[in-house]
Specification:
- The structure is a homodimer of 142-residue chains.
- The first copy, chain A, is α+β, with helices and mostly antiparallel strands and 142 residues long.
- The first copy, chain A, has four helices and five strands; from the N terminus they run H-H-H-E-E-E-E-H-E.
- In chain A, a hairpin with a 7-residue loop joins strand 1 and strand 2.
- In chain A, helix 2 packs across helix 3.
- At the A-B interface, helix 4 and strand 5 of A face helix 4 and strand 5 of B.
- The structure holds a DNA duplex (25 and 25 nucleotides).
Amino acid sequence: MVNHPESTATNQEFPEEISGLRMTRQRLEVYRCLHDEKTHPTAVEVFMRVKDRLPHISLATVYNCLEALVQHGVIRQVNFERESSRYCANMIDHGHFLDVETGKIYDLEFKPGVCVTDFMKLPEGIITEDIDITVRGKFSKN
Amino acid sequence: MVNHPESTATNQEFPEEISGLRMTRQRLEVYRCLHDEKTHPTAVEVFMRVKDRLPHISLATVYNCLEALVQHGVIRQVNFERESSRYCANMIDHGHFLDVETGKIYDLEFKPGVCVTDFMKLPEGIITEDIDITVRGKFSKN
DNA sequence: CTATATGCAAATAGTTTGCCTGTTA
DNA sequence: TAACAGGCAAACTATTTGCATATAG
């Protein structure tokens, strides 16, 4: 994400220009929603939230905005099982914990300095692009 | 999976009784398909393959069979991104490597003795049910 | 001013469901 | 023979697309 030097944005949290992506009110609000909420909302949840500010926005536009933001590496699409895709603005490499009892999702940090090859046997000569780790479980009661 | 002691099955590869699951020709063929093919087929791929032996089987039945086998812990459902679900009969805990160039999927073994907590920071008091690891990447050319 | 994004509605893909008939245990 | 599975078609959900209009740069 690149902050445009001559940016006239009133809110410095949300860059006027995101690495060459044409910035529209809709894209800005979609991004803002994800940046504010750390809860990995679905497209429909983003849609409902953004409608407060942009009552005319359509669900298809939300999908298109999310797609554009994902393509420009500003947000991340996360898929859990067969559920709707979820999105998050946390671009730091991380995994997810899915609480099977509440359905809530928590970010998981990697332990510092670990590498996939420390715990998985990878075939020779692989160039790793991305690792996706999801832990399913629950909190013990006591 | 439990082999019935007095089993009269002619093919010892496919148990007549799978932990209380009523065994039908359809379920048997679906299971056999996954056991034979190590290629993580989708429901539609299983459907096409099984139709050779059971020309009257319907796609809905394949879905139902897969669901039943998953519920009884005999096969595993694996989801990659937004693609169709894939299924495999390898119940040993393993991850997956997705070759982004060919779309092919390879099983990945864990290194012996590793535990999630070795590489991820988990919240206190979590009971882990399942870990899902998918590595995306490609083979280097040389 | 021109390329590109929006909004709407309709299309699509994958999967699930309802209902009646057939089969398993 | 009772409970459950199969087959078929229709329903459903999440997402994508086509097209006319609006807007960003």
